[in-house]
Every structure is written in structure tokens, then in C-alpha cells.
Amino acid sequence: MLLLAVLMPATTLIAGAAAPVAAAGAPPMPGGFTAVTPARTLDTRIGVGAAAAKVGPGRSIDLQVTGMGGVPSTGVAAVALNLTVTEPTAVGFLTVYPTGETRPLASSANFVASQTVANAVVARIGTGGKVTIYNSSGTSHLVADVAGWHASARDAGSAFTPVAPVRLLDSRTTQAVGPGGTVRVPVAVPRPATLTAVALNVTATEPSTGGFLTVHPSGTTLPLASNLNVVAGQTRANFVAVKLADGAVDIYNSKGTTHVVVDLLGYWSPGSNSRMTAVTPTRLMDTRTGLGRAGAVQGQGTALLQLPGAGPVPAGRAAAVVLNVTATAPTTGGHLTVYPSGDSPPPLASNLNFVAGETVPNLVIVPLGRDGAVKIYNSNGDTHIVVDVVGWFDLPAERLDIERPSTFHSDVAIDPTSTYAYVTNTAYGRVEVLRLVDGVFEEPIPVGSQPLGLDLTPDGSRLYVANRGSTYVSVVDVAARSELRRVPIPSERMSDRPYSIAVLANGKALLTTTFDGSGFGAYMYEIDLATDAVKLRTDFWIWSGKTTEYTSIRASGDRTAAVIVVGDNSPGALFRYDAPTDAFSPRRETWDFISYGATNADGSVTLVNDGGMLFDRSLQPLGTVGCGSGGVAVNRQGSVGYGFGAYYESATGIIGTIAVCDLVNFRVTRVIPIGPVAGLGRLQVSPDGRTLLGITDTGLVLVRL
Fold it and tell me: Which residues form the signal peptide (predicted)?
């Protein structure tokens, strides 16, 4: 991205101390990304995009980016460029920022006299669809190639899924790329056919002569563009955003021989909802001045950078950040690796390489750790580090298509190993089987008519499915993926049908029924799991087992308790079932039309929807968290809750959200947008706390936590 200001061997240049000033107008909105075939939009050597002349010291040029090189004239929030400085006469830096704004304390590329160097840039669009490029010192020619653009609307373009760095290629283990040669790099990620573009860190090492690399969609004509400029014997890296073709990219080497190393940082696809918000470059760390950290980072040491709430990165909404990271004044050659905090050891990847005494920047997209931080690892010697943020991606929610989902009635259960999720499909009389690791549906399991509620036995070997269109509960052999037997449910009235079910640790399952109408015409039953015997629980409530048509049950993680929410009932009745004593609690009235409830591993914390009311083990109120109005979920520890909600955008209509709530301090810590919706259903968090799955009218939403 773009952010930095500074340095060089004996001479250190620092961007001015003026604080960045945001332009007036509406705040930037997250938008999707569209990659284009690299196209040259600026070359001051020949008069493309600006006059055919060098840019002087302290001077700027305004580059038109909208309507050029495959970038549309409207609907653009930011542009992805590869910026090259060539033939500079002095040490200096470039800063790219929105035209019309005050130049920020940041830099986008650093150079020394006579050096040709490139750096990737993501820049927010300014006045007239332009970006401004400022040159600090000396005179330099500038070259820019456009790689893609970020939309100003959420529903335009593709969304980003960040990953911890994954090495795709290291030609040092095979053979170098020769002059005029091309190496094809397949991109191995889940469902590659759905990908539109990838984010890569490309490194050239051990080049035999000066030249450049060009990365482009595999099998396409080599474009007039470059991504990385090298000199003999030096190692250079640069960030690349590039379209895919046939699941791969091609890397062309102009001269000599060089080894190429490629690391995957993430990918863009239509199925995710993580969009980027471009910001005016803002400095977050400068170890020379003590900003963010004081003192150089030692060899094999790390610098911790806390992101949410820092500068323009909002607390609780960012999944990944776009940074310009610069190493300056290193005492020896080495590399920096930027990765999510909490990952240990650092991944086998690098983001930028340097030699003693030089200043090297690179653009980095990196996921945040669970603590909202990233680490920067220094391989050798001591080096100062400067970091500017230029954008952030909101938390990714992946939309998974499922035929004719029923938002209000469909249910979801996740196995004890957090490997598979099971979702009832009422329209097709089956249970969908979703593999959580990659979001792929496997062969569905046929059950009864209109399946609604479902739950797993504690060991995950059996799945109990309540079939609303039938008079029985299906018992499914999970390993065989087939219906094992059917448990008939007596009908107390003509339209009485199975609705919600919870399997407990005492060898019983609780089942509620529903009917065609409203009022107290449904019932609470128990099923003996050993004998399939069904019994009306006349001790439930005050009407000898009767309840409303929308009474849902959710078991605790250890199956020792269950929370029972009586829907379509103005007092908002709430109950707790204790499995060891086989007893229902007294009624707790919430005085709201609640419909969803969830509890933690031991049933000590209960969260219900419509405001996020929280209760203890005895159903005594603890407070209100504001955790959504739809389906809710609670992690095993009872410390974090999740709740469906929505807000309205004039351009796209109703946007669904998932609120992440701190149940200890009673506050919403982040909000995950999930895109346009009309209806929101149930939520479930995996036992390992790493995956959240929800049901909407348009399909399933999968969130990696």
C-alpha cells in the first residue's frame, strides 16, 4: 500500500511532520476489488499520463486513474498501482495520496541516486478521479501500471480472503528462470475456479544481471508493464495483485537468470464479504522516533503492532490490514516477515529483503491475530521499521449457496470436532453436510418431510432430526450418512408436528412440536435415546406440557443443560432444563418477543435475542449486551456472544450483520457485515470457537473467527 517516509544509508529522509488531513465529504465505504490486466497509465520518460519530463524536488503530479487502463470512470474508491521510480538524481521518497487532500506523513517508495525501484501502492481516489504523486528530493522519472480497482459499493467487485503466507514457488529448489523465460505458478486454494485474483509477494533473488519481472494471468499476452525491478546479485520483493487465468499466473523474466520465490497472501472471490476500505496513509510505527515501538528490532526479534483503534483502523471491524512496511538502516542483510499475532513461529515466507544500510519498502496485506495485532519478524542484524496503514478489510463472511433455505425454521448443528456442520433443508427433505475447513458441501442426507430442528449426540455419532412435515424424528447414522430409524411422535392434535430438538447427556432428548396456528397448541416431549420411548413432559410449564408453536431448545456444550425459548409469547418466557436432575426451572419472563436462545459449555450463561439479554445459571438477569435481534450463539467459555442484526444502506437496502459481543464487559466489540439480506435465522459457533455459521434467506454465512 502506501505509507512511509524516509531514509537511506548515511542520509535519512523523513516525510514532513504535518498530520494527515482527511478530505471533506462522506466517510470511505468498503468495496470489492476488480483486477485488470496490467496497463501502463504513467511514464514520464515518454509523456504517458504526464509531461515527458522528470518530476522535480518537492514537486507533485496529479495522475488520472479513473477512466484509464481498465478502471471505470465512476464507482471507484481506490486504485491498485505498481509505482516505479527510475533515474533519480538524489536520495528520496515518493508519497501517493488522494488528490485534493493535504500530503500525509507517509511514503510509498524509497530510492537512492540512479536506482530503479518499484513498490506496489493502493491509493484512495481524490478529486477528479486522480491521485497525487509527490517526489521529495532530486529529479526522477516515474512509471505507474494499474493492477485493479476497489469499488465504492460493497456489492461491486470481488471480496478478499486473507491467509497466513503460503509459499507457492521457490525456484531455488528447481531451476532459475532464464532470460525471456516464463514460469507458471498454480495457485492452490479451496475452490480455485471461483477465484478472480490473488495477492502475492514476489521475490527475485540471485539475478545475474539487471532486469524486471512481470506477473500476469497465465496464458495471456505479456502486457507492457512490470512488477519488480532487480539489479545483479541483489534480492528484491514486491507485492502483486493479479488476475487468475486457469487457476494460475505467469511470471516473465526480462534478462539474465534469476530465482523467483512466490508467497500467497490472500485471494479475491465472489463468495466472500470482506471488502477493503481505503484510507489516507497514516503512520502507525516508526522505531526511530519511538512511535509504536522504541529502538531498532534485533535479529530474530519481532515488533508487535496493535491495529484495531489505531489511526483510521476501527476497533472491532477489521480482519486484515493493508500496510506499507519499510526497513531502514539495517546493520546487515536480511528480511522482514509480517504475520498475524499469535502464530508461532513466523511462517516460511518473507515480505521484504534488504542489505546493510539500505531502505526498502513493500506493500503487505496481513490478517490480524485474535488480539487484533500483527508481528513483524526481523531475520538478521538490527533494523528500524516504519509502518503506514493505507487500508483495512472488514471481517470476512463467506456466503454459501444452498437451495431454498428456510430462514426461520432451518437449524444448524456442528460436530464435536468442529469438522462438519449439518443444516436442515426444509424444502428438499434433507440435511445438508458442510465441510467447515473449506466450505464445501458433501452429499446430503435424506430424512423426513420438512426437517426443522436437529441435534447431535454427545459423541457426534447420531443426528436427531425433527421433521415438521412428518410425525416422526429421524435418527441418522452420521458415519454412514443415512437414516437409521424413525421415532414416531404422538400427535396431540391434528396438526401437531415435530419442531425443535436437543440431545442431553442423561440419555434423553427434549422435543417441542408446532402446529398450523398460534397459541398454546404445541407440546414438550422427551425421547429415551436407548429405547426410543416418547413421553409427554407434563411437568413443563403450567399447562401440562403445552407450549407455543415456536418453542426452540438449545443444549449446552456438555449436554448437561438446555435453554428453552418460548416464541410468539408476549411475556417472552424462558426456561432452563437441568439434565442431571431431569427438571425444568421456573419460568423467567423477559417481556419481549424473543425467539432464539443459546448457552455456553456448562449452561452457566444464557443469551437470548432481541437486544441480547444475558442470564446466569438460575436465569437471573445479568444485563443487556445489544447483541442483535436474530439468531444468537455463545462460545464454550461463555465469554463471547454472537447475534444477527441488520442496518439499512440507501444504495443496497438491508445489510445483514453479525455482532460480536463481550459478555463479560457487556459491549459489542465488532460488527461483521454479511451483505444484502431479507431474513435472518439461526447462528451456531463451532466447539473450537473458530467458525461461526448462520442461516439467512439467501443461504448460509460462514465466518472464520
Answer: 1-17
What is the layout of strands, in order, in the sheet containing 640-649? 632-634, 640-649, 653-662, 667-676
String of b and e for 619-639 (b: at least 16 CB within 10 Å)? beeeeebbbbbbbbbbbbebe
602 DSSP assignment: T
CB 657 within 8 A of CB 670: no
**For the chain, first and last CA: distance in Å?**
25
Among 258, 266, 291, which residue's Cα sits nearest to residue 183?
Answer: 258
Residues whose CB falls within 8 Å of the CB of residue 454, separated by 6 or more in sequence, listed in order:
411, 412, 413, 422, 424, 431, 463, 464, 465, 466, 501
What lies within 8 Å, CB to CB, of 82 at 6+ separation is 38, 118, 119, 120, 121, 144, 145, 147, 225, 226, 227, 238, 240
**Could you give the C-alpha distances from 229 to 117, 254, 353, in angstroms and in order?**
6, 10, 13
Q: Per residue in 380-409, pLDDT tens?
A: 999 999 999 988 887 666 667 666 555 445
Q: Where are the beta strands (DSSP E) in 218-358?
A: 228-230, 236-243, 248-253, 259-269, 276-286, 301-306, 318-328, 334-340, 352-354
Contact 135, 108 (CB under 8 A): no
DSSP symbol at 102? P
Cβ-based neighbour number of residue 331 at 10 Å: 14
The three cell numbers locating residue 633: 450463539
Q: pTM for the whole thing?
A: 0.62
**Residues present in the chain in total:** 705
Domain ranges of the chain: 410-635
CA-nearest of 399, 412, 420, 432 to 699 is: 399
Query: Do the Cβ atoms of 326 and 338 come closer than 8 Å?
Result: no
Strand 117-124 relative to strand 159-170, pairing? unpaired
Q: CA geometry: angle at 250 spanning 247 and 255, to 5°?
A: 170
Q: Is 46 exposed, middle or buried (0-12, 13-18, 19+ CB in 10 A)?
A: exposed
> pLDDT value at position 565?
94
Cis bond upstream, residue 345 (ω within 30): yes
CB atoms closer than 10 angstroms to residue 9: 13
- Tell me if 44 sits within 8 A of 50, measured CB to CB: yes
In 3D, which of 573, 523, 555 has the Cα closest to residue 636? 555
Q: Which CATH number is 410-635 given?
A: 2.130.10.10
Do residues 623 and 578 lie in contact, with contact meaning Cβ atoms separated by under 8 Å? no
Angstrom CA distances, 16 to 95, 104, 428, 528, stand at 11, 8, 64, 75
State the pLDDT at residue 18. Answer: 30
Distance between CA atoms of 124 and 430, rounded to whole angstroms?
47
Nearest to 166 by CA among 184, 190, 183: 190
The DSSP code for 20 is: P
Q: Which of 419-423, 425-429, 507-511, 675-679 has the lowest mean pLDDT?
A: 675-679
Task: Concatenate the DSSP letters of all residues of 398-426 into one string.
Answer: EEE--SS--TTT--EEE-TTSSEEEEEET
Sheet with 197-205: strands ordered across: 159-170, 259-269, 197-205, 236-243
CB atoms within 10 A of CB 237: 23
Distance, C-alpha 609 to centroid of its chain: 25
| pLDDT tens-digit series, residues 255-296 | 999 999 999 888 887 755 567 888 888 999 999 999 999 999
Complete edge-to-edge strand list for the sheet that includes strand 141-151: 33-43, 141-151, 76-86, 117-124
